[in-house]
Specification:
2 copies of one chain form a homodimer. Chain A is mostly helical and 294 residues long. Chain A is built from 14 helices and 2 strands; from the N terminus they run ααααββαααααααααα. Chain A has one domain: Farnesyl Diphosphate Synthase. The first copy, chain A, has a two-stranded antiparallel sheet with strand order 1-2. Chain A is globular, with a radius of gyration of 18 Å. Chains A and B meet through α2, α6, α7 and α8 of A and α2, α6, α7 and α8 of B. Chains A, B: It is an enzyme of class 2 (transferase).
Amino acid sequence: MNEALNAYLAEKKEWFDDQLAKLFDHASITPKLKNSMLYSIKAGGKRIRPILLFATLHSFGRDEKLGLKTALGLEMIHTYSLIHDDLPAMDNDTLRRGQPTNHVVYGDGTAVLAGDGLLTAAFQMVADDQRLDAAVRVALIGMLAKAAGPEGMVGGQEDDLEAEGKLLHLEELMSIHKRKTGALIRFPVEAAAIIAEATELQTEALIRYSEHLGLAFQIGDDILDVVGDEEALGKTIGSDLANKKNTYVSLLRVDGAKEKLAQEVKQALANLKELGFEDGLLGDLARYLEKRTH
Amino acid sequence: MNEALNAYLAEKKEWFDDQLAKLFDHASITPKLKNSMLYSIKAGGKRIRPILLFATLHSFGRDEKLGLKTALGLEMIHTYSLIHDDLPAMDNDTLRRGQPTNHVVYGDGTAVLAGDGLLTAAFQMVADDQRLDAAVRVALIGMLAKAAGPEGMVGGQEDDLEAEGKLLHLEELMSIHKRKTGALIRFPVEAAAIIAEATELQTEALIRYSEHLGLAFQIGDDILDVVGDEEALGKTIGSDLANKKNTYVSLLRVDGAKEKLAQEVKQALANLKELGFEDGLLGDLARYLEKRTH
């Protein structure tokens, strides 16, 4: 990984993880529910979505603190989606990042409620953000709800449920991913554009960047599932194939998926070039996604 | 029921039900997910929470349309809570209002997602409400999220889960209900106070009214579960007792619960008197809650 990117990721991740750990310090919440929510919040992860928001603000020369509460809300929503996705009613996964999933530790009922609680509190977080104007906050909330809701992530999860056991075409797979994982990768970039008062043209280029980046991210995950290092990945290599999931690798084989990944990264970078951002953190992030599978 | 209240309820319920049916007309949502959300949204119910919002606006001489989107968001959140509450992971109920519950019709996975989708889209609804200032919208969203989230309804549901099979004291039961059902009965009254620009004193009296009303509503439900008309109620009489749930009737017997109900209604009305609202719709609603169990 590029040294500047590495230093930025490490610094921001530490700062952000500290803030996450304090999420419910001043809230009056029944202990088991609070523990259940914090268990999954603290379970780690690369915090790639918040980092994207911070890196975009940074590219515009704006203070990352302006995006802190939005990033916290976003990570709460990402975390809730993992808790619900792992439920027996959904993917029925018992391990995530090498740890028992939420419902395994706290029971199915509390896991449902922990997800509901994180999702709900995420909007409270953004609504109460005193650093931003009310007009900016309602724009962010409307956009976050659209990205995470039935037209976005939740809709993609439903399509994914319905696609189980069916063989998809590449276009169908891309359409599901655009909502299931892409919407919450596009959101932080677009949110930062709003906070930084980007022009319409800048915002459009950033959105295109984020859409290519989102696909690159998903394709990279699929490749790593087949060729990756089991320990570094925190899950069983080849589990997607064993579960007969539709992935870019199952449709394009490893070589075709790598080629598709390279194309998406190239297009992401082309959009950054329009903004003069291709040599900065956002460019480094895109280039990193390609390198991590080689 | 009082004639003026009856006419108001019928008129507003019809208007509101029409709006609910059109909720996702212009949204691009995968069909099964949309059908699942609309199935529970259209499953009826008295729409008591939206009616409270409208009746409070009416008491201040304000147009009910100002509260429409907030009321839609509120009813979406109430509906999501019923879908998740009925899941096998929670209460495992197969019937609600005489109809199969959401997961029975659409499967557990889609029911989880339908609940998630309604909850998320509720905040989009309020954020996008062009009739209200951005500052009012963020205040409403923050308040709605707090009422519905881990410090409110979701917290009460968790306490309720943990209380299963335990014998509670009256104070504990009241504390659970204050969050589990009370928070979403208080919200519409407080939301209307914000929209109507009520004074601080007026708002405080309205909140006290809504808290007594919320308890009266719950106590009434518990009494009806034992002495009610099965058909009118849409569920099996005595099901709470059969499920060994803690209720006001199990703690106070029917006579004691009726006495407690009368006290709550009396206190609700005393707070309305401070506002000069006791003879209007809000007073009628409180008086109706007492009468419906006699």
